[in-house]
Model the fold of this input.
Amino acid sequence: MVSNRCKMAVRDELKKLGLHFIVVDLGEVEIMESLSDGERELVRIALLNSGFELMDDRRSALIERIKGTIIEMVHFSDEVVKINISNYLSEKLDYDYTYLATLFSEVQGSTIEQFLISHKVERIKELITYGELSITEIAWKMNYSSVGHLSHQFKKVTGLSPSYFKKLKDRNKLRNPIEEVG
Done:
C-alpha cells in the first residue's frame, strides 16, 4: 500500500468480508479475528482483485514496511525529515538499520539508498511539474544540502538537468507511478 487511497481500498475490502481491523497502515494490516485457511484465502483473493498482495512472510512484510515508510516520507509528508534515513527507518520500524539494509539488498537486489533516491527524483519531477516551487525551494523541501546536489542526483537518474526537465512540454510522459518507482 503506497497511499491513503490504498489504505482506504484495503479497509473497504476487509469491511466487505466482515473483518474487523485494528491497524491498516502502509504495508501492514492487523485484523482482530483469527483467520482460518479458507478466510485467509478469501482475503488474499479480495486484495489481489484490488491490486494488492497478501504477504505472510515476515521478511517480505518488513521490506514492504521499509518501502512504505520511504514512500510516505517522500511523497506524502509535508514535514522535512532532517535526520538521516538510517536513523529515521530504525526509529520508525524499530529495527537496527544494518539489518534493514542487508535484508532490503538481499531481497530487492538494490539498496535502500537507491530506492530513496529513485523516489526523491520522482517527487522532484512532480514538484517541478506543479510549478509552485523554485528549484531552491524543492531542494530544501527534499532535504538536499544544495541545489547543486539535487541537480547532480536528478541528472544522474534521469539524464536531464532539473531546469531542462522544467522546459519540456511532455514532461508528464517522463513521470512514473509511485508503485513503479524503485
In short: The radius of gyration is 18 Å. The chain is about 60% helix and 5% strand. The longest helix spans residues 58-76. The CA atoms of residues 138 and 181 lie 19 Å apart.
